[in-house]
Amino acid sequence: MPTIVVDVMPKAELLDPQGKAVAGALRRLGNTTFTGVRIGKRFELTVDGPVDDAALASAREIAESLLSNSVIEDVVAVREAETVAAAAEVGAV
Amino acid sequence: MPTIVVDVMPKAELLDPQGKAVAGALRRLGNTTFTGVRIGKRFELTVDGPVDDAALASAREIAESLLSNSVIEDVVAVREAETVAAAAEVGAV
After folding, report:
1. What are the boundaries of each domain within chain A?
2. Do residues B4 and B61 lie in contact, with contact meaning Cβ atoms separated by under 8 Å?
3. ipTM for the whole complex
4. How would you classify the pairing of strands A3-10 and A34-47?
5. Domain B3-92, CATH 3.40.50.1000 — does that match?
6. CA–CA separation, B91 vs A61, rounded Å?
7. pTM
8. Interface test with B, best of A8, A14, A29, A44 (most B CBs within 10 A)
9. Rg of the Cα trace of chain A?
10. Which of A1, B29, B42, B53 could covalently link to A42 via disulfide, CB atoms 3.0 to 4.6 Å apart?
């Protein structure tokens, strides 16, 4: 099914306690590669029909009004899911 | 700062009550464009150094072992953040 992905992250200027906790855990486990972690949400919206401009506009409106809290969160991406590319990426790592 | 993005989603065969609730809310609000919603997590890991194969491998290991619960979740992507491309996408919608 065609899918639109919406990514929502806590605003950069706000503390992200959940991310801070994970970053602290990584440090305690001896990992020095990553200095910070922020945790947001990823929504997958199944589209009934083609992913055209109207569907993307509708997804963007929903993302701004319902899926995120604009006081503390930013919508960082609204895009069609890249099914094959994502699978290849995961396999390549 | 260079950033690696990790996307984690609930497994396809599992019920996602949070996503189901959002899908129901959309339907009640009269939206017929989207038939399903699934909600996962997006992690942004700040890398201390370049995003090379070692950093991506380390991120993948952390994603599988710490950031996701492999019983109920799948790591769907581990990739370098696409800063300019993502901004353009958001602007275009």
Report:
1. 3-92
2. no
3. 0.85
4. antiparallel
5. no
6. 13
7. 0.85
8. A44
9. 16
10. B42
